[in-house]
Amino acid sequence: MPRDLTSYPIRARRDGSSVLVENHASLQLYDLGGGRLELSAPQEEGAMGLDVALAAFEALTNHGDESAIRLTGTDWTPLLPDLLAKGIALQAEIGPVVLPASLWQAADRWCPQDAANYPTLWQQGPHGRHPIRPPKPTGLLYQRHIPWLDQVLTLRALDHSDLETFHRWQNDPRVAEFFEETGTIEHHRAYLETLMTDPHMLPVIGTLDGRDFAYFELYWARENRIGAQYDAAPWDRGWHVLIGEENVRGADYVTAWLPSLMHYMFLAEPRTQSLMGEPKASHAQQLKNLSRGGFAHIREFDFSHKRASLVQLERQHFFEARLWARPETGRGAPLCFSPARLPTTGDWT
């Protein structure tokens, strides 16, 4: 069921000893060092809803160098049951805390559609059994403000209105060198129709501030050709990418769309534990980008049309290493907490 996005996304920013949430509230912030923050809710009645809280938490964790946010004061009380129930906040010895690894697994801030609570039902596929896949989502899938670009990145399910853009991109020689799918508009219409009706594929368009810039193919690994190359778990997912616009290239953009796409796939299906890829083994730049983005190189293998590298990103690594942030920032503040080791009084003094 889509969430109400009338005021989404509310943005917030850190400003010295405050977190300013646009048109809503100012939250008092205390930085204790070592990645430890304390945040007080505003005292104005009605100022603190879940959307305001999530905007503030995102602003404090978008750069990947905070370890824990302690929620101080009684003004959090009305929101705490919801925050604790969703796992956004965890109850620790020092009181309720928000950890980046828990916050960024809560879809409420970034995904307008709830993850499908779909049963695991099995059927036979090309590489053994695989789960029956949930109905594919339509419309807006994901939305995130990228602080180093100061732009909003969105992902949406491709539909028929995207045909001309897809056709133009595929016939760009730079794109064709790697995607190898040039052709007429009728060829591309048939190509997309096949994907849109295939339960294991999800074609996606990426935008920055409303401008289309990329095409992604998301797939379930077990019934894909990659499923013949390794022992795929039931909910492993893979992806292909096409950056269609020449001026949306380079490290600033890769560090925006790559972790955001991975983030969406982990949020869309909580049972997904690994994201897989099979880039050309000779595509040195893409392999370098994937390595910086947290992907491990497993091995090389041969498809009929290319020599490929099998790469993998694990869910636990993505969230605990805070890979949504730019590689050159934060990562590994002096104190690192996880649900297995919540902050104690000794950590906070």
Automatic annotation (TrEMBL):
<dbReference type="InterPro" id="IPR016181">
    <property type="entry name" value="Acyl_CoA_acyltransferase"/>
</dbReference>
<dbReference type="GO" id="GO:0019290">
    <property type="term" value="P:siderophore biosynthetic process"/>
</dbReference>
<dbReference type="Pfam" id="PF13523">
    <property type="entry name" value="Acetyltransf_8"/>
</dbReference>
<dbReference type="InterPro" id="IPR019432">
    <property type="entry name" value="Acyltransferase_MbtK/IucB-like"/>
</dbReference>
<feature type="domain" description="Acyltransferase MbtK/IucB-like conserved">
    <location>
        <begin position="156"/>
        <end position="202"/>
    </location>
</feature>
<keyword id="KW-0808">Transferase</keyword>
<comment type="pathway">
    <text>Siderophore biosynthesis.</text>
</comment>
<protein>
    <submittedName>
        <fullName>Protein N-acetyltransferase, RimJ/RimL family</fullName>
    </submittedName>
</protein>
<dbReference type="GO" id="GO:0016410">
    <property type="term" value="F:N-acyltransferase activity"/>
</dbReference>
